[in-house]
Structure formats: C-alpha cells, structure tokens
Design goal:
The complex is a heterodimer. Chain A contains 14 helices and 16 strands. The radius of gyration of chain A is 22 Å and the shape is globular. Chain A has 2 domains: 2-222, Cytochrome Bc1 Complex, Chain A, domain 1 (2-Layer Sandwich); 247-426, Metalloenzyme, LuxS/M16 peptidase-like (Cytochrome Bc1 Complex, Chain A, domain 1, 2-Layer Sandwich), CATH 3.30.830.10. Chain A is of the alpha+beta class. Chain A has helices spanning 65-73, 81-87, 111-122, 129-147, 150-162, 184-194, 210-222, 272-290, 295-302, 332-349, 353-370, 374-386, 394-400, 403-413, and strands spanning 2-6, 11-17, 23-28, 35-41, 49-51, 58-60, 75-76, 79-80, 91-96, 101-107, 200-206, 247-252, 258-264, 311-316, 321-328, 419-426. Chain A is 42% helix and 21% strand. In chain A, α3 (111-122) packs parallel to α7 (210-222) and α8 packs across α11 (353-370). In chain A, the strands form 4 sheets. In chain A, strands 1-2-3-11-4-10-9 form a 7-stranded mixed β-sheet, with helices on both faces. A 5-stranded mixed β-sheet of chain A has the order 12-16-13-15-14, with helices on both faces. The termini of chain B are far apart. Chain B has helices spanning 42-52, 62-71, 108-121, 132-147, 153-165, 187-200, 213-223, 278-290, 295-303, 332-347, 353-369, 374-387, 393-402, 405-413, and strands at residues 6-11, 14-20, 26-36, 76-84, 87-97, 125-126, 129-130, 203-209, 250-256, 261-268, 307-315, 320-327, 416-425. Chain B is globular, with a radius of gyration of 23 Å. The chains are: A alpha+beta, B alpha+beta. Chains A and B meet through α2, α4, α9 and α11 of A and α2, β5, α4, β11 and α11 of B.
Chain lengths: 427, 430
Amino acid sequence: MHQYYDPLIKDTLFTEKLENGLTVAVLRKPGYKEATGRIATHYGSVDSRFIDPQTGEEVHVPDGIAHFLEHKLFEEEEGNVSDFFSELGAESNAYTTYTHTVYYFNTTENFDQCFELLLKFVQNPQFTDESVAKEQGIIDQEIRMYMDDPGWRSNANLLEALYVNHPVKIDIAGTVESIKQITKESLYLCHRTFYHPANMVVFVVGDVDPAQVVAMTRASFARHNYPEQTEIRRILPEEPGEVHERRRMEKLVVSQPIFRMGFKEQRVGLHGQDLLRQDLLTAMVLDAVCGRSSELYTSLYESGLIDHRFGFEYSPEESYGYSYFAGPTRDPAELEVRLLAGLQDAAEKGIAEADFERARKKAIGRTVSMMNDPDTVSYVFVDGFFKEEGLFDYIPVANSLTLEAANERLRTHFDPQRTAISIIYPK
Amino acid sequence: MTAGFTRFNLAEGVNLYVHPTNKFKTNVVYIYFHTPLAAETVTRNALLPMVLSRGSEAYPTTAELSRHLDELYGASFGADVTRRGEVQSLVFRMEVASEQHLPGEEQLLQKGLETLAGIITRPAREGNGFKADYFRQETANLKQTIESLVNDKRRWAMVRCTEEMCKGEPFALYRLGQVADLEQITSESLMEHHAAVISNAPVDMFVIGDVEPEAIRDLVQRTIQLPASGPNGRIMPQTQVKREPGRATQHVEDRLDVNQGVLVIGLRSGITVRDPEYFPMLVANGVLGGFPHSKLFQEVREKNSLAYFAYSSIETVKGVGFMFAGIEFEDMEQCKEIMLEQLKAVQQGDIGDEEFETTKRTMINDILGAADNPGAMADLAVDRVFSGRDLTIEERVEAYQAVTKEQAAAAAGKLTLDTIYFLNRKEGGE
C-alpha cells in the first residue's frame, strides 16, 4: 500500500491499486466520529455513446440513463438498499454528474457492515420492467422539480447555448421523453460496461484502518467474475470552438431577471497536473478580476447591478470547460455590457501583482479549510481522481502559478467571441 | 464544561463558550445576538447584518474589508439572521485557517476576531448613520432578496403555509422581514437600532478550534467591547406556544405558473425543547417523515411514485410541524390522504420494531457526527441555550435510546392538523 503524509495539511492518504484495476484510497482522520465510504464510477450523463467492450459495437443509449441507473441500483429484491443502511444507523445517498456517478454512506457505527453493503449493492444490479416503470414516475417528478428551479434552468440554458454538439448541453437527468426510452436491457448493458472495477474508485475518509478497507474491497470484488477490460471508448461528437447561440431566454416565476454569462473553453483535452494548473489559474484570475476585493465587483455592486448572490466559477473537464458569471440583476443588458467591458479593461491593464498574490493566499487558505469536511474532500477527491489530479497537489500547484501565466490566461480565456448569455426573465 | 465547551459568563447575558480541539484545520467563531421576532423590528434586524458587513471603522470600504479578509488566507466571514421559535438572532461568523498549516503565519485567529469585533461594534459611519450609499444599496438588496423567495418554490410554499397558519402570531413573520417596512427605515434609525441590539440582546459567542479556553476568554475580553446593557438587562426573548389550532382546519391555495405542485401540511404540537415529550416528538417525526426510510418517503414516493421528495419536519421552540411533498397537480388529494394516514399510523402506534430502531439509530448517528463539524457543533450549542438543558452529546444519545414506541406515539398524538397549503398551477395551464 502506498502511503503519503502531507506535511502542510498534516493528513495521510493511503492508496492501493488492486489487480482488477480498482483504486482504493483512504484519508485517515484521527478523532473523527463519523466515517464516509464512497464508490464512484467514471460514468456520467455525457457517456451516452460508446463502444461496447464485449461486442466491439457502437451503442447509443437514451439520455439520462446514468442518473436513472444510479436510482435503480438502490433497489434489490430484498428491499431498498437505503433502508439497509438506515438499519445499520447510516445515511446513504448517491449523485450523478456529467462525468461520474458516486454512491456513499456516512456513519458513526457499523462501518465494516456499511462498507461491505456499499460494495455489494453497487456490484449487484437487479432491474425488472415493473421497477423501471415505477422509477420513471419518480424521476419525472425530479425533472419537474428542476423545471421550476431558476438557478438550475439558468445553467442548463447556458450550456445549451455554449455547446453545439457536446452532450453536456443535455440535462443530467435527461428529459421526460428520453427516460421513457430506458429499458432494463439498456440498464444492464451500461452497468456491465461502466461498473467494471478498472473504471471505478473507492474512497474512505475517517478514523479507520486503511489495510482493513483494502482487504474488504479486495474480498468483495473477488466474489464477482470480471473479464479483463481495456479502457472504454466513449464517443463524443466533434465540438467546434464557436458557441451554439449567443443568447438563450426563458420565462419563469422569479422576482427579477437571472443573468448568466459563460465563456467557452478553447484549451480542451488536458488532464492531470495540466488540467489542475488551468483550473486553479483560471479560478485565481476570476477571483483577482471579479472577486469581492476587485474594482469590477465593487463598481457592479455599487451600481446595483449585482448583489451578494452574484457568483462565478470555472468548470474544467477533459472534453469541455467553461467559466460563468451569474446572479439576479435589475438590468441584464447593462450587466452584460459592463462585465464584458470590465474584463476587457482588466485584460489590457493586467492583474496587479498584489491582487494576484492575495488571490493565491485565499486559494491556499480555502484549500486548508476544505480539508475539514469529509464530504467536500470526498467530492474533490473523486472529481480529481478521474481527471488524474492528486488531492494534495492543490497547494503546490497554486504556489507554482505565475502572474505572467495569469495575465496570459486572462487575455485568452475571456474571448468576447466565445461567450453566451442565458437569462431567466420573470413571467 | 458545557458538553465539550468551557463556558465563561463575561457579563450578565453575555456568554462565551470555547471548545478546544485539534481535529479541525480552522478556528471558527460564531457570535449570536438574540432578539425578539416582532413585526416592528424583524426587517431592521435582517437589514443590520447586511449593512454592517459592508465596512468598519478600520476597513471603511467593502473592498478594503474584503482585501483584508483575503490577506488572512481567505478568512471566511458571514453575517445573517436566523430564527428559532419567535427569536430572531443576528449571527456573525468568522473562520480562519489554523496557522499550523501555514508556515510563517501568526495570530490569524486574533486578527480575525479583531476584524469581526470591528464589524459588529464599530461600523463605518457617516453623520449619525451608516454610510448613506451602503445603507441605500443594502436596503435595495434586502428588498430583492425578500422578493426572490418566490424563486424557490419549496421554501416559498413552507413560508406561505407558516404565514397562514400562524397569522397574528410573531411566528408568521418571514426571517428576512417585509418589503413594506423598508420605507420606514433610515440610516440614522438603523444606527439607533444597532445601538439597541448590541446593548440589549443576550449574546452567545462560540469559539471552536485549536485554542486554549482561558487565552480565548482574555482575547475576547480585550477585543470585543460591548456596551453596558440597558436598564432591563439582556433578556432572552420568549416564544408563545399554542397547543391547539383553536379553529377548524384551514385550506389555503396559491396559484403560480409552475411545473410541479407543492403540498405543505401544517401541524401544531405545542411540544417544545423544554417539555418531557421533546425527545419522543423528535423520534415521532423521524418515523413519520424525517428520513428516506420514514413512512412519508416510503408511501408517497417508493410505493405510489407520486413524488421525488416527501418529508416532515418538526420545530421545537414554537411547537409546530410540517409534512411536505412536490407532486403532480392532480395527485394533490391522493397525496394528502396518504400523508394524513401516515400521521394517523404514527399516532396509533402503528410502528414496526425495525423502523423504530432504525429511526433512533439514524438520529443518534446524526448527533454523533455533529462532533466532526464546527458549524453543527455551534448549532447544537445554541439549541442547548434555548433548551435550558445542559445535555452532552452522550446524554442526548441516551435520551434517544430511552424513547419507547408508546412515548413516540403519544407525542405524535399531540400533532393536530392546522393548515393544508397547496401551491397549484395557474388556471388555464396545460
């Protein structure tokens, strides 16, 4: 087992790669009463076209199937798995993102039993026509709930505007129509393909014995016969650098317009440290140029164009990426003009050294704070794992970034030709 | 010791609670000012933290304050109002990374605390009021924030149900107040209100982190200077508890142009954190709808596929409870019947051994897990202030374990139907 003690964070990460390709990692948290165990697959809503590794044939499955599968795995002949976790005193849940699916539990007792249950149920699909039909009713309500959620709709519309072909433009849950196309056969096919140990990772945070976690994982996976599997070929359509549409509007019951402006990443295809560097660099640039300490933020705020709910973020993945600025506003048109002008002005002047150093300090301090919370750490670990980023790389990478690189990034990323606007107007 | 916290009574109505631990990578400070939830002050209380957050004497502009916080390795500062029963509390929070992870850094906690004290007690002024621009901007922001409640249909439905259910009682007031009040507030009157709050409100301060209690006490006494209390002292506000609705069940419906209906059933229990039925009532709520294994989720979602979310919640300062679900418009009657049947089942003690034990175990897991999270620890500590009962985490665990099915059913028996609220679609919608 590989063991790494980070002298700055003062935590130890244990990792082991099993013979079947599965990575098991444990972040020891001495003194923590609660432990969280997770298993994740590198399979999200964008993976709807792929080559079936067993037949070599191309498959196209309905949109929303990864999320549907996540719901359905909890159901077993003996009952619902979340009830079994409850009986052990644990809470369990799962989530599906564009790129991965995660199953987890949190518990203060019966860790071993919970962990075994987690590994067992994720490897044990039991789908029937009836249970698929029943789930369609529940997910239908989930989709409708999001249809009334302006923040969610605002982001979904931005992605539809930014992307021409990339499936990130399709909602993670699919649509009311697409989920009707899902059958138990397609669910089994996706499970067999993507829930292979070589495509998965196990992560535990807590005051637990890492060797025991590895042994239990090995034993659990040994109960199944996994054929050797090479990397799964996912088929993504060609995506141009240009945006699909300049703007998208929707009307919902909201009190004032909700504005969102996105910039489409042009430097895609990165992973590992390169992707992490781009991620942290962009985040620091955003903070220096538009964070609460910046002139731009102050001027937008004091003009009443934004309030404390204004935010921005950079979302980098291997096959796509975008940054956005979003918040409610009294005047979306003016906010758009002022933001674009502000970004251009910042690019011409360049970021001042003091502002960049401050953004760096903040990024480092927030990384330290993040390590407090096992749920957040787990989210970051799993997300980073599939991008081949290391949990303890954040601070060294943040320290390695230069002002020159930041200014270069500022000039290239915020290209007014590569931007789209999404606005939710009051009905 | 108060459940892991060392308590210092710094002045009448001013308490400091310190929890030393090296488990966390940050040091966290919470400062609460408890005020009565009242129509006359609810909006001013909500506005005050927003204006205070804009600057202090030492950092008179928001940008300066923000830069200073960034320099403290991204110290995270927040100010808000929360509500427990008919008590509206102003909450100020500061979290700084612990220096042991930042070689060469010193006194981050002290600097953070000084900054926090400045924000609370020495605001940026102009004449006899706050800075006019900041006051004007935050008044506009609060108006927008109150109005934006409608953006979140679930919360909107809960707030509307509470409003209708508790009409005439302070509990009906929304946490952030009402837009109509904003016209009456001036920068000067808000400054007067600020003086009144910091001198009359009972104060609870919590510090959690790699600290030494006596050193923190000295540091707090040096840095946070509160004015002497007014003639009546700092008195903890009380909440009026109504045991029964005192009228027939109300039916309320709002219509908005939405894709999903939200059903909220408002209940009165009259059981508060000070009653012997407190723990049985929490367990009863857990059995009814606190968790995915609970009756509501199982019946409404898993058996009948009517909803994605279906839960219940219990409030134990005022003594009220809610059942809620997001559903198809035409399923409203069916969903309501199922929810009321489930309530009746709990009241009649129709509770399986397994679901009962599972509920208690899950609740115990939650309580134990709180010790891993500074925010949850502070939250529990505030609950203790409200309960007047000084239970440790272990004692709370025992109290849950001791609850019997009969006690839970009896507690649930106190839940009486008050208001059935439905957020429906606009007529003429598809």
